[in-house]
Give the backbone structure.
Amino acid sequence: MAEDLKGSILQRDRDTYAIVPRIPAGVLTPEKLEALANVVKKYRIPVIKITSGHRLALVGIKKDEIDSVWRDLDMDIGRATELCFHYIQACPGTDLCRYGVQDSLGLGIDLEKRFYDMKFPAKLKIGVSGCPFCCGESYVRDIGIVGKKKGWTLIFGGNSGRKPRIGDVLAEDLEKDVLLKMTEKLLVYYRDNAKKRERTAQFADRIGIDELKKVFTTDQTT
Ligand code: SF4
């Protein structure tokens, strides 16, 4: 069993640790990049790995240097093993991509702020895409969101892991504020009704899409 020390993950060598700083929607600043580079050089961290969740893992840290590394970084811990919200993948969207029809990056950052502290029965990942090309891998994330010309599509129960599952489309053509309310209802329902370690994919199969859609009665979303 991996020892957990201030958000760190014991590595295969059973001696060094990896940490994953929190990087909302994968957006960095020059100051954060500089802090990361300085820490890597100062502590001779051997590996910097860009993860599939648009984060950076610093791998090969000595146990007695973990506290100092975090102090020097001055960044929040990104969760990588706990049963909770892990990360949001958000594609560039209208800010940066010529195909974008919705602001996926802005929405991703908003969602990260709103839901980061929620605990869940299993790990939870969100994918936000600014157009139907779906670079945010929205159909294979626990919560998937896709921007289309008429508004946002909300998807639930996707997974790209050992038992892949394409998420179910629960609603389409949503304004941003309605989407945020519906996402919150959905997350609360999942949090309160799923079994421990039951990912949204298994939960969706057990509960069924019709039951999931009942979460969104008119009363609940207004
Ligand atoms: S999903 Fe669309 S908007 Fe987002 S990066 Fe891909 S092509 Fe661009």
In short: The chain has a mean pLDDT of 93.
